[in-house]
Amino acid sequence: MTTDSLAPLTFSVLDLAPINANSTPTETFRRSLDLAQQVERLGYTRYWLSEHHNMASVASSAPVVLIGYIAGGTSTLRVGSGGIMLPNHAPLVVAEQMGTLATLYPGRIDLGLGRAPGSDQVTAQAIRGSRFGGAQDFPRDIQQLQAYFSAANSTATVRAIPGEGLEVPIYVLGSSTDSAYLAAALGLPYAFASHFAPGQLFPALEIYRQNFRPSAALAAPYVIACVNVVAADTDAQAQHLATSLKQFMLGVIKGRPAPLQPPVESMAGLWEPAQQYAVEQMLAYSFIGSKATIQQDLQQFVDETQVNEIMAVTNVFSHEARVYSYQLLAEALRGIPQPRAELVG
């Protein structure tokens, strides 16, 4: 790929609001706001917050509230959900909440939507109650949201106020080919969770691009790839910091997610071979190293995937190291060009 006359690649942040060991959600949220303010200065485009429930390691159970907190403390950054798990919520309530945010922070709110529960099945039952099978209604619920946000809904019996007429941009999130088909059919931008589900990335991208139908929202396919990034001054320092991420994912594999742990000298003795294999498979699209290493590896990733945007999640124990990682990533990504339009379609 040549870099002549191409704009730099768009880059953004996914924040899981990780809770550090011996820390509190209050401190987590303060760190999130500081990170958002820092990445805004660094030229990041979006700052998205996830929805997870019943996890001692993650504080982002109410992304709508956090979006307002982050948007209120920043001025230009687009802030949104990565994502709101739509089967957990009534579409009207989501439209009203996001419409309220879009009214308070016009032109800055994104709505990323997923269909997973964001937790275990027992917790999902507690959240969804009689709507436990609501995932099957995901396509219909997205279309209902689009209707609530449209000006044409002004004559409907049920209206989202505020929200109506705001056309809040919707993104389909996914980790499988099912979501690729849906995003393509609806003509919506597609964000793939390759930071924990790398296996179906390439099949999903091919399905999305081949089946994409232009819509009022989007004329051509647009892909965001979420990846893990840990950057430091040297490869060795980055690998050391990344042991916190590996411990975090090991807890997920074991079904016992724990607060984010400090880095360790070695993962030996912390995991069994089968667990190591599972963690490394989940973290296949993790970019760990110095700025030069990150730039080289991400350049190859962009060349292979032709994604339009990189959304980075950085789970390291030290807040200062996390901010610095995003600084190094921004510097690295400014040297990677946006894929040409004809390669994206």
From TrEMBL:
<comment type="similarity">
    <text>To bacterial alkanal monooxygenase alpha and beta chains.</text>
</comment>
<dbReference type="InterPro" id="IPR019949">
    <property type="entry name" value="CmoO-like"/>
</dbReference>
<dbReference type="Pfam" id="PF00296">
    <property type="entry name" value="Bac_luciferase"/>
</dbReference>
<feature type="domain" description="Luciferase-like">
    <location>
        <begin position="11"/>
        <end position="253"/>
    </location>
</feature>
<dbReference type="InterPro" id="IPR036661">
    <property type="entry name" value="Luciferase-like_sf"/>
</dbReference>
<dbReference type="InterPro" id="IPR050766">
    <property type="entry name" value="Bact_Lucif_Oxidored"/>
</dbReference>
<dbReference type="InterPro" id="IPR011251">
    <property type="entry name" value="Luciferase-like_dom"/>
</dbReference>
<dbReference type="GO" id="GO:0005829">
    <property type="term" value="C:cytosol"/>
</dbReference>
<dbReference type="GO" id="GO:0016705">
    <property type="term" value="F:oxidoreductase activity, acting on paired donors, with incorporation or reduction of molecular oxygen"/>
</dbReference>
<protein>
    <recommendedName>
        <fullName>Luciferase-like monooxygenase</fullName>
    </recommendedName>
</protein>
